[in-house]
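Notebook entry, structure prediction.
Reason for the run: the old model in the group folder had no record of what sequence produced it. Starting over properly, with the input documented here first.
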Amino acid sequence: MSASQTPSPCCFVPVPSVPANQRGLRRFVGGPRRSATTHHRRSIPLAGAVFDYLENVFAWRALAAFPEPATTNGLLGLASAAKNVSFWLAGVMLLVGLATLALRPLARRVLKLGAQSPFTDDAISQ
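New structure, fully documented this time:
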């Protein structure tokens, strides 16, 4: 392994390191950097799963204390509502993402055709 390569944390595959003076350029070469909101969007289905497990735990506690009311009955309804909201939100985000992926190539074609159109401002001014 040469001095310009550092070992990666997984499987010890050498990964080329980026010199300190080129680290700012790496952002533009590798594409746009993901914002913090992207990571929060990814965690919405995970939150739904957590609320689902909480709902199951509270339901088992209610079953175990059947003749008497369980102390977690109010939390059972809250966990159920939070689970439903987060799963619906995740489903809507999935549909919006799929629609975006499906419509992106169409938008590129329309923009390309618009740039080649004989009716652009440059063609009319001539």
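Summary: Residues 25-31 have pLDDT under 50 and may be disordered.
The old model has been moved to the deprecated folder.
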